[in-house]
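Can you give me the bound-state structure? Components:
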Amino acid sequence: MLPRPAPSRFRSSEAFDLQSFLATRTRAVNRALDGFVPKASAKPRTIHTAMRYSLFAGGKRMRPALCLAASGACGGRESAAMPLACAVECIHTYSLIHDDLPAMDDDDFRRGKPTNHKVFGEGIAVLAGDALLTEAFEIALQCRGWPRYSHQTIVRELARAAGSLQLIAGQVADLEGEGKRISAQHLRYIHERKTSALLCCAVRLGGMSANCTGAQLKALTDFGYYVGLAFQVVDDILDVTQTTEQLGKTAGKDRKAKKATYPAILGLEKSRRIAEGLTQRAFQALKTFRGKALALEALAEFLLKRDR
Amino acid sequence: MLPRPAPSRFRSSEAFDLQSFLATRTRAVNRALDGFVPKASAKPRTIHTAMRYSLFAGGKRMRPALCLAASGACGGRESAAMPLACAVECIHTYSLIHDDLPAMDDDDFRRGKPTNHKVFGEGIAVLAGDALLTEAFEIALQCRGWPRYSHQTIVRELARAAGSLQLIAGQVADLEGEGKRISAQHLRYIHERKTSALLCCAVRLGGMSANCTGAQLKALTDFGYYVGLAFQVVDDILDVTQTTEQLGKTAGKDRKAKKATYPAILGLEKSRRIAEGLTQRAFQALKTFRGKALALEALAEFLLKRDR
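Here's the bound-state model for the whole set.
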């Protein structure tokens, strides 16, 4: 039971070759990450092997792709956005490693492979997450600054999105919500922080790296916000509708952990309509780019229609 | 059995009122930290309460004091060094929270209080550490930049000291060294990273915040390096000679965990001579300041003679 095909108003896939965009950008991001992060042979080998194990476990590089696409929509050079795209991916990966720990979501599989702590033990997994979080800031600092967007502005953006009022707040609220009755409003609060904050940050950083205008940054902020929310709703739908093999991570986990999700609160059909509505709003935000944000449109559509 | 009184060549205490320096700086640092970190009432309360629990658990604020003293030695204003002093303290506190986790050193007491995970649970303790690490970068970015020391340079310094080649490398090597025979050389490698890296960083950042000269930065680097090493040797000595009550954390842990320490490898007497020799070298590094680094001298002496 896949998410329902998106309505025909999403036409970006006809105008844009997303598959080739994703293939080239994933390769470029992987190459850049490989250059930024210490080699596995760097002492102590354990920690660098563990960091690289999760960083190169076959992630879809959606956040870096969004960052690069946002930079492109604003006429920027992707090389200027690359350190920020990689920094966001490091933060995403660290959050998955810590989230999978027994004390948190307690997950054994991620991207079809044993989770970090299953391979390296809990102590090293905690440290590998810490190291990727720290590395993210070192990488982000290699970005180019502009008069409008200084290094201070850009890196603070990253710290805030990853911090205790955003990404970590979402993780905490998610942990604390398990087994409790939660309103759709509180669920939105969790999704805004757990998923939308970092995704929106990726898009905004792409714009900043291109020295975007204020109007462009506003448009990217709205786009990232809605795509981030849609992303999490689709994630919750897939947890119910797909198998562990299809997802590469344990399916049906949310119900088992008695987590509040849109499907649990509102049912599958309504959840699908919500995901579509959010993606529609993300599309609307891109109007100001007058057809120059095709990659962002195609990514939003892809994230809605994905099956894993 | 206290560490032997330091030889008479350490005379800084006669020329400098360290007690009053520490009292005023601790108050100022606590006030600044209180302003930088979200209030305990900020949503989600759990995470901010947990962050503040460890951040305000009565730490001695040695790293901030060293940072402020280094700034003073270079003629800087302490207010310019304050964000960096606080950022280093956040990183120090995060590393203690994660280090105390059952998967790492598994400690129940720190600074005379139950450790973070004993009060808030392991999941929140991991996230509180993550949040303090992230917060450190947001705070550090509030520093003042100079043509010689840009925000990029300053914050990269912090990221490197806390990263997988320094602080985290030390934690990993420490974890992996338990129960193994370790050479004095490898032990030095561990201490350089586990302790000296962040302490040296605190001192260097103080200098940078004061727009110090290259010669001053070199002197501060040497000073921080040797004081950091001496600090860890004294820590290892105190673990053997003091009680849990005196230390505020579990005493005798190193021997129980079969950790390599200077006392274990070389005996107490030789370890004391090593700590004195390292402090002596730290003093020598300060010569270039021609008597303007009294606070740093007094701190080095204090760290050598401390009994907890």
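A couple of observations. Residues 214-241 of chain A form the longest helix (28 residues). The CA atoms of residues 36 and 208 of chain A lie 21 Å apart.
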